[in-house]
Structure formats: C-alpha cells, structure tokens
Write a structure and sequence with these properties.
This protein has about 110 residues and is mostly helical. Helix content is about 70%, strand content about 0%. About 30% of the residues are buried.
Length: about 110
C-alpha cells in the first residue's frame, strides 16, 4: 500500500505542476506534465484528470489530431465516465480530421 500512496503523491505533484502551467496558458509545458502523469501513473486518480486536461489543452491550441487521439484513449479507458463523454463529444477520429488541409475537430475554429 505504501507504493500506491507514493505513486499517488508523485502523480498529484506532477498534475499540480501541469495545472500551474495550464492556468498560465503555457500549453506545451502543461501538456508535458499531463502526459507524464498519464504515462507514468496510469492507475492513479490523477491519470484520468491529466488526460482530461490534455484534451482541453489540445482544444485550446487547436491540435485536432492530438485531441482525437486522447479522446479515443479516454473513451477506451473510461467507457462509462460522463465527463470523458462530455469533453469528447463530437471529436472525430484523427484519420477523419485529416481529410482537408487545416481541418479542425468539431468545436474548434480558426
């Protein structure tokens, strides 16, 4: 149980650092921290939260393919989570967003 607590603490620490950058619109830095949380500590409570923030960050900087990828991952990992479904509603698969040059996922504008 001590390992699980340590992992949760480490995930929380990196998530909070990502949120600092997120709140300051430093999207690329926030994305690095959120990706680390999801990759290094997938079993923690903060992994899902980090993935949700990744989706929000990708939406803010109009990274349609990355948004589609993270939504696909979240929908696979958390099929019954309402927040995941809400945040990813209308996001098309990455292959679908590349049909036209510069195409953005639904809800994103130039």
């Amino acid at each position: 149980i001590q390992i699980a607590q340590l992992n949760e603490w480490l995930a929380t620490k990196d998530y909070d650092t990502g949120m600092f950058y997120f709140r300051n619109n430093a999207w690329d830095s926030a994305i690095l921290y959120f990706k680390d949380v999801a990759r290094k500590w997938p079993e923690t409570d903060h992994a899902r939260l980090a993935m949700l923030r990744l989706a929000e960050s990708y939406r803010k900087i109009r990274y349609a393919d990355d948004l589609a990828d993270i939504c696909h991952q979240m929908e696979s990992l958390y099929p019954n989570n309402g927040k995941v479904h809400e945040d990813c509603r209308g996001v098309k698969a990455a292959a679908d967003t590349s049909k036209a040059p510069g195409a953005l996922a639904p809800g994103l504008t130039h």
